[in-house]
Amino acid sequence: MKPVIRDSGGFVAGLLFLSVGLGAIGIASGYRVGSALHMGPGYFPVVVGVLLVLVGAASVVRALSVTVVGGERVALRPVLVIGAAVAVFALSIDRIGLVPTVFISALLACMAGSKPAVLESCVIAAVLSVMAAGIFHYGLKLPFSLF
Q1: CA distance 24 to 60
Q2: 25 with 53: CB under 8 angstroms?
Q3: Partner residues linked to 34 by β-bridges
Q4: Where exactly are the structural domains of the chain?
Q5: Is 132:106 a contact under the CB 8 Å cutoff?
Q6: Is the pTM of this model over 0.85?
Q7: pLDDT tens digits for 1-54?
Q8: Which of 8, 36, 88, 125 has the fewest C-beta atoms lying within 10 Å of its C-beta?
Q9: What's the CA gap between 26 and 46, in Å, rounded?
């Protein structure tokens, strides 16, 4: 019996997860893995790679067995706005500091919804900025300037 791909989007996503996971495992295989208590430089990439392979395999199996009724359209606004938020974060973290970068990125991400509320988005962005400063600057002592 020939396998039938019933959900092409899930199948392609599963193959993408599988390939990235296998690539991470392949790249990390040259590093010392260590154990959970004494992690080597290859431990985290191998664990993430294995998790990606498991998710990819599950997605491929699901795509082969579940019939999708009607295709869903991809909403471009969320994709573009979230992509812009990631780009803003990457381009501005070194220039304007952690707090304003997280605030702007979170504000952009909140605007990806169909009916964004400005006041609610500002509160979420402010809380995330304070949390990021507390966790990454003060807690983990990462070398990010705050402003």
Answers
A1: 19
A2: yes
A3: 39
A4: 8-65, 76-139
A5: no
A6: no
A7: 566 777 778 888 999 999 999 999 999 988 998 888 888 898 999 999 999 999
A8: 36
A9: 8
